[in-house]
## 1
Amino acid sequence: MTDQRRPSAGVARRSETSRRAVLTAAFELAAEVGYAKLSIEGIAARAGVGKQTIYRWWPSKGAVLFDAFLMFTTGEPGEEGGGESVEEAALPDTGDVEADLKTVMFATVDELNDPRYDRTMRTLSIEIAHDADLAALYAERLNRPMRELKKRRLRAAQEAGQLAADLDLDVAVDLLWSPLLVRWLHREGPLTHEYAAALVETALGGMRP
Amino acid sequence: MTDQRRPSAGVARRSETSRRAVLTAAFELAAEVGYAKLSIEGIAARAGVGKQTIYRWWPSKGAVLFDAFLMFTTGEPGEEGGGESVEEAALPDTGDVEADLKTVMFATVDELNDPRYDRTMRTLSIEIAHDADLAALYAERLNRPMRELKKRRLRAAQEAGQLAADLDLDVAVDLLWSPLLVRWLHREGPLTHEYAAALVETALGGMRP
């Protein structure tokens, strides 16, 4: 990795600093003021960059917030940075699929109960429901890779004979995670570890006697 | 029911006519223009009533839309009318819980795929996610009674020995219906009868071999 091969290393580094500043500003502002009051002007002012810098990289405030969300939830800082990407991450695998699913879902519960994440994730979730284009972006860039991680863990359990050989892993992921999302999004009841544990146990064992 | 007991029967009838006109206008406008552009003024104009008539009965446009949604989805026309209320409704009970759940969930799928309902329900769902007060109203007036209907059918199956005696019926309702809601709201994939059938079968039988 010489200067010949990366003549613009300094520029890239400065760009990455600006990019992170923009994403951090967007994430914080979404949590503080909500999506409706979030503006490119406000993000630019907090990040200390010009509006044109933002428009060069993102077509809309939804796209900025989406990337900010991706950076903060997966540690993925974008094309130019390092860090662990969604593809490199993995769900825990102790060999006990029930225990591992509970570990992961308890973490999801804790995250959704964190006011800082609640507001930003609620904002993103509302925008996805509103905006079919953002929904497609979300489905491709965040939901699909996250879903693949979950399916990879379930597939390992399937191969170990702990899950049914003909189980549809997409259906399984939905059965486990969608109830958490709905209870949180519609505030239908308290989001607790006990509830998550009951979901895991019932989904694994089934409703029949 | 004499005139002595209901001296204002004519007034009540006229009020009910206005109330239905307002709710119909709100439902139609929400589907046509979306919640952001929905206004009390617009509802009043379409319903042919004064704004004050609306403000006398509802504190906000969210509250109007909520009542409209309730009237159109449950056939419940409000305190003064007749018709089947949520409490009087029931899920089908042929004795086959799997078949009955599929019947009901296929109907939910068809409803969510109907553009007229999609837009109104999406609007309501987004408002519930935004607004904790509306979420509480929704939880109490629509979600709780609808959930009770579902639990009543599951309880009958439990008593018939078709479902586990220790099954938490709230968890069961969430496992069955929440994946439909998330797939629809976040447009994560096609909402089909096949998907609903897979949910019912997997939730009933469990993910284990």
## 2
Amino acid sequence: MHRVVVGDYATSGFRKEDLKSVFDIATEAGSLLLKHQILSRGEIDAVIFSSCSSDQYSASILAEMLGIKPKIALRIDNLCNSGTSAVISGHGLIASGLCKSALIVGAETRNSPGRVLSWDVTRGAFALPIHWGTMYARNHMRTYGTTEEQMAMVVVKNRKNASKNPNALYRKKITADEVMQSKRITYPLKLLDCSSLCTGASAVLLLSETMASDKVENPVYVTGIGAQTNSASLAKVMSDINGTGTSKLAARQAYKMAKTTPKSIDVAELHDAFSIMEIMAYEDLGFVQRGMGGKYVEQNEVATNPRGGILGCGHPLGATGLSQVAEITAQLSGSAGRRQVKGCKYGLVYNLSAAGTSAIVVILRVD
Amino acid sequence: MHRVVVGDYATSGFRKEDLKSVFDIATEAGSLLLKHQILSRGEIDAVIFSSCSSDQYSASILAEMLGIKPKIALRIDNLCNSGTSAVISGHGLIASGLCKSALIVGAETRNSPGRVLSWDVTRGAFALPIHWGTMYARNHMRTYGTTEEQMAMVVVKNRKNASKNPNALYRKKITADEVMQSKRITYPLKLLDCSSLCTGASAVLLLSETMASDKVENPVYVTGIGAQTNSASLAKVMSDINGTGTSKLAARQAYKMAKTTPKSIDVAELHDAFSIMEIMAYEDLGFVQRGMGGKYVEQNEVATNPRGGILGCGHPLGATGLSQVAEITAQLSGSAGRRQVKGCKYGLVYNLSAAGTSAIVVILRVD
């Protein structure tokens, strides 16, 4: 197996804009990356597009708009973790030796068709994401004594981080009081506990180690991949609300492949679609024992969501996983500027889809 | 790199039906395959869905409907070659060692959103597939003297093959006269020169060689993969109408990877969306010299489109590439029944997307 390097990345500003097409948005991030000239356009073997867009042969369109004639052009989607699903596919193309490089671009518009899930009738009246966020939150509070204040602390931290990220949707710091007093939507979730769908794009360039050798100064390697799908039905996922869960299984696979443990992780991007999801992530990823996630917010040994997470950056579905990978790559290669976490060697990306119906964990490291 | 085996396959009846959902159709082929019990549901590492459907997280839905909880679930599309694009991705997952198995299901309904291409405004008034089919046909006739009768012979051959395929949309043999006298749609294309969009599904199970060793009797290996994307714009593709073309480049890559030449190919499924496309395929794949495709119909040393091709079987977009792989696997493993081509060892799949905007060639072989 060829080792795979994240050789470059670029992210467009995440924003509320809804006039441009998903291709215009995708081209922003793709063009930014190509301007760095790590590779010429002719050296790009595959263009993978990650999006919930309903456009046809969209990867071929994106390739054309970027002026690339790749060998392989394909679009991948799996809702909120489309981005890391695309990374897994790109990794396979390179690790197997079929390709030397893959440009993966994720993009979404705020009015993406991914905002509505019509298939899962088990959701019944609980059709919106906030319904499952609420169930997870109430369950965690009831079972483990997690508090609204602890959830608010997640938001405060991520918004603070986002204030240093010029690409984040929300760049204003907020206080725990502001979160607690923001509009109550359900019990216990308030407006500021929830992320926002938005418009944005992020691109990542995967390279074979050989291809990267004379082009990338501080290569960041993909060393662990874990993924687990449970069910597309909320009812089935919820029956597992305190069980092992897709996230724990995905994490276990990723640590095993990376030959490491949660203790080694220095920095992580976590799927905080709702504040409670970050608290549960601490537990599922093994940073802290089951039930202790609420308290972990107060100590937080791993630097979590340095780019601002989904709460701070917004959630352009197909782009989210790629912007997570981009941030961890920036951190590990020491290029994160004002957001730089000192001395980090191991980084983790945790990307969920629709209420935890599937989870993906990717571990990156520098040698 | 781990060698990859096509360990199993199943195809539903291709038909005009348009009442069922794309998931019902996909589940038909997936369930058929699972009934063979090559693997248990728990042994399936990845479920890849190939379709132009605009449903969200559709691979997760399909996995649930099939009763599988795979690690990886993702949907791939690239219009008419979505199926082989999915095979390329699945191959990467297994060849790299990340997965031991991948169930790839392609499905489409006749009213698929893939039937309309709205993005490519360079098509102008030539928006329909028959417009590009016509341009290719007229160019080939003008440049190389190919005749309408030669194109009709392609249709006769493929319909004859389809008459032995219980899953084909068209199972009635026809004569060259019938083709020549069918309704003229453009000059030179008649109704029977054109394939039909239809409803259908096809599934393929990829396995690592190790996984296949005690489960598959006559393992068929994926030994060559080639792919080339040109442009999503018809105008740009057409400027290359007599040039090297995506197909020739894809074929070259595939032969190189498989360490073989066109001479070794015994059986091939070719992308005959229009009869002229099969004549051009003979040339692009190196079965015969440029310009000699029309005459090759009369000799046809390679057994072409034994399942009936797209002309005979119909074209359920996301399923087509997989049904091609399924047929070549059946042929190479000696399981093609009434359609069996004797003594074949090397097989080829050739799958195009939208007017040749991208081409994929996959070479399979038995040891």
